[in-house]
Amino acid sequence: MSGYSPHTDAEVAQMLGFLGLSTLDDLFDVVPAALRLAGGLDLADGMTEPDVLAYMGDLARTNRPAGRDLVCFAGGGAYDHEVPPVTRALASRSEFVTSYTPYQPEVAQGVLQAVFEFQTLVARLTGMEVANASLYDGAAATVEAVNLGVAASGRDTVWVSRGLNPAWREVLATFGAGTGHRLVEVPLTDGTTRWAESAPGTGEEPGVVVVAYPNYLGCLEDLSAARAVCDRTGALLVVAFDPIAAGVLRSPAAWGADVVVGEGQVLGMPLSFGGPYLGLFACGLAQVRRLPGRLVGETVDAEGRRAYVSTLRAREQDIRREKATSNVCTNQTLMAVTAAIQLGWLGTTGIAEVARRSAQGAHYCRTKLLGLSGVEPLVDGPVLREFAIRLPVAAPVAIERLVDEGFLAGIALDPGYTSGSDDGLLVAVTERRTRTEIDAFVDAVAKVVR
Amino acid sequence: MAAAGGRASSAPLLGRDTEPTLFELSERGRRSWQLRTTAVPETPLEDFVPEGHLRDGPPELAEVSERDLVAHFTRLSHRQFSVDLGAYPLGSCTMKYNPKMCDAVASLPGLADVHPAAPASCSQGWLQLLVELEGQLCEITGMAAATLQPAAGAAGELTGLLLMRAWHEAQGSSRHKVVIPDSAHGTNPASVTLGGYEVVTVPSDDRGCVDLAALRSVLDDDVAGIMLTNPNTLGLFEEDIVAIAGAVHEVGGLLYYDGANLNAIVGVVRPGDMGFDIVHLNLHKTFATPHGGGGPGAGPVAVSERLVPYLPGPRPTLLADGAGTRYGWATTPESIGRVHSWHGNALVLARALAYLLVHGGDGLEQVARLAVLNANWLRTRLSGTFDVPYDRPCMHECVLSAASLKKATGVRALDVAKRLLEEGFHSPTVYFPLIVEEALMLEPTETESLQTLEALATALEKIAAEAGEPGGAGRAAEAPHATPVRRVDEARAARTLVPTFDARR
Predict the structure, then answer these.
(1) In the A/B pair of chains, how many CB contacts fall below 8 A?
(2) Burial class (CB in 10 A: 0-12, 13-18, 19+), B484
(3) What are residue A237's DSSP bridge partners?
């Protein structure tokens, strides 16, 4: 039994006496006796903290984390970028960690201002006018963008590029079962979306068009083609951007995005086996009253001093209930604060440098891999820090063998991307990969595919 | 006299100056970042990226030194109330102490640095952890299996509603309505809409529970199910739960348990034994994973046997084969599909398992008992000071009302909340549930001591007493004075929207 509850036996007796009760169980007299759990939970008794730490440490040791022993070339929406000690230290300050949703702004200016800065940084990265206070992850942000787009356009047909992360497309389909949106997947040709030929077959124009930049295969889409589809049909353009690539790429706003979503894990979060990550969501002021989730705004206090507060609250579920723009309540605020710290650390020059170095590493790695006999490019289009290749062996087999060589080689591509074969491998390179590591990786791939 | 641990009257340290934004601290040419030396050839991007894709210059973020960065965010942290600082009796949010041990677990490199797409051979420890957590949550809820993917309670609600939909469709039944009580959290109706259902609201009776007759009158074969929080948002146990479950099941509906208030009953009574079919849990409430200023949470959904095939996939699973046992992933053909990019908020899930292990079955039962003891102590102590609209034993939280205080003095629940901040405590939840006038919803949790409860009650009594003094209402309306900022102009924020620093001009 843990020591987190401070009550002494004497205090428990005193408090029960104050209530006119004799045992703690008397507190539950309102629970019908037949429902009460006889004999307690079938769980082991509590352990001490050191024993729990040892047990969890043993579990952790049976994993193979990214690091020197397993050099990471995997991406697919989760990337091994630098997370400096300063980000870890500031983001683990207990004032940020152990507070909650800033319902009382007078004692929550710390989180509110950090989120306001986060919103500003995301707006600057995307070029959009407004960003929200975070959503769960990239997939959740895309779902919310589609919901916003359908509401704004009044049309529930959604064209989704197959260049969008397949897991995110699956999440869209899962939630589409509730909203009833008609999701139409638009295929890729040589790595980018084939909008021109995409006759949807439904006979109905889209209300929303979703495209990723760079896309899942690492390719750079010509977003002006997607914008043209939207201009022709009146659909809203949702761009799933990459906040690191945004350091060197033309902003989604410059391409004409109406809503920008993204996965913010790359902004200071460790790989974390997939979470907690950070859903990014930005749009124009024209859509702000449809914005999902929380939004922090600047205002003043009773003495006229600058202050921050959650605003446009009338959109939210606790006020609007079934007519709310979203059901989101708890979001990923600590991750938003982390991203604000990380973007502060990177700054204007750092975000561009990380993007540039990652792209240079990927270019070097890709060129060397394509020099190996039997390794072919999946597509020829321009790529940034991630790219797809075809191997002369099944990708899952190659990945397992490369683990033995000390590399997490990448992600086996869904056969939908490779005409049904299992030889597609998605490789990511970040600014953390040295030339020595890349050279050793290429040598290991050569050995495995031989 | 300080309350043991609970009163934050010594913060903040200094003054009440406004903290400049990162953008105002920025000075061109400063930098914090340092990156690995890689010796990768510095090929110009223009050589391999077509010109139309590259931006002219980097996006302007901020340029600050590491020293400035640390000072800025440290000063911001001094403008923030938190559980670690003092008592946080925010009703419905279960702001209990978050053991530091769980944070240490979440920072183990063998957990924190694992890529989510790593093959199962590289993530056996993670898979085992998730399978063990699922098992414990099923034992606690009385359910057969669970998905750990939903990232928060609301995500769990929507997942549960989609499970409800999939189940009815598999029975060849198309239903359109979901019933919720008028005391429900706002996430419930919002989730119902996103699940493609129509909300039917049933009133509470004069005892604060679901009006059984009213419920029966709305139940028919178009009702997919009911969403209930038990204990409900008034902190009261739904004593008619067996009859409610029988009535809903009789028309072929399912019962959804909103786990927001599970802290009251963990180890005492299980949703499964009450007749619920689908349960979401808020690990950031009941199992003490830190709330993070508004997330990350985790909202696993556990279901009864008949709903198991529909759970989101892939699910971590113990696989047995000729070579022995190992962990892997499995997805059923009937699965509703993924509800998260990866496997859920994994590091939150790891913290929750650590919390469960350190407490064990015996410790968890004590959690609920002490949480309920604390709430009843506060309710009884304060019943002479504020109205108690439903005056009977409560569970983990009590809902008081400032209606009489307002009538007598003009001091509203909001003023009481703001005054309490000056006394070194976080405010209770106010104006919720909606069915209580001038509601003050207090959830002390089991980790606050009797001394803290006494100090909190004394502070509330002092606030009520001062309200009745000459000029008391005016002073209360001006509170708080001692906080980093005074009362914040929320109307102006909405009227003149400034959502970014760049929108200031």
Answers:
(1) 736
(2) buried
(3) A209
| Domain, as residue range, for A393 | 71-83+348-449
C-beta atoms of A96 and B77 within 8 A: yes
Query: Which sequence spans correspond to the domains of chain B?
Result: 20-78, 124-344, 361-493
pLDDT digits (tens, 9 = 90+) for A356-372: 999 999 999 999 999 99
The reply to whether the predicted model has a pTM over 0.95 is: yes
pLDDT at A1 over 70: no
Whether A20 is covered by a domain: the verdict is: no
DSSP bridge partners of B23: none
Looking at the 3D structure of chain A, how many domains does it have? 2
* Last residue of one domain, picked from the residues A317, A342, A367: A342
Say if residues A273 and B337 touch (Cβ distance below 8 Å): no
Look at residue A121 and tell me if it is in a domain. yes
Per-residue pLDDT of A254-293, as tens digits, reads: 999 999 999 999 999 999 999 999 999 999 999 999 999 9
What are the angstrom distances between the C-alpha of A102 and each of A62, A166, A357, B86? 39, 35, 38, 15
Residue A403 counted as domain residue: yes
Cβ within 8 Å of B, A 189-228:
220, 222
Report A:349-388 residues touching B (Cβ under 8 A).
349-354, 356-357, 359-361, 363-364, 382, 384
Minimum-distance CB partner of A24 among B96, B373, B500: B373
pLDDT of A305 above 80: yes
Output the CATH code of domain B124-344: 3.40.640.10
Residue A246 and residue A330 in one domain: yes
Question: Shortest Cα distance from A224 to chain B (angstroms)?
Answer: 10
Q: B73–A275: do the CB atoms touch at under 8 Å? A: no
Distance (Å, whole) CA A425 – CA B119:
13
Co-location of A108 and A243 in the same domain:
yes
Helix (H) or strand (E) holding B164: helix B153-170
Q: Which of B78, B152, B487 sits opposite A329 (nearest CB)?
A: B152
Q: Which two tokens stand for residue B337?
A: 């599909």
CATH of B361-493, one of 1.20.1110.10, 3.40.50.300, 3.90.1150.10, 3.30.1360.70: 3.90.1150.10
* Tens digit of each residue's pLDDT (9 = 90 or more) over A73-114: 999 999 999 999 999 999 999 999 999 999 999 999 999 999
Strand duo A279-283 + B315-321: pairing: unpaired
Residue of chain B whose alpha carbon sits nearest to that of A380: B48
Which regions in chain B score pLDDT beneath 50? Answer: 1
CA of B353: which chain A residue's CA is closest?
A56
Q: What does the alpha-carbon distance between residue B174 and residue A99 come to, in Å, rounded to a whole number?
A: 43
User: With a cut of 0.95, is the ipTM above it?
Assistant: yes
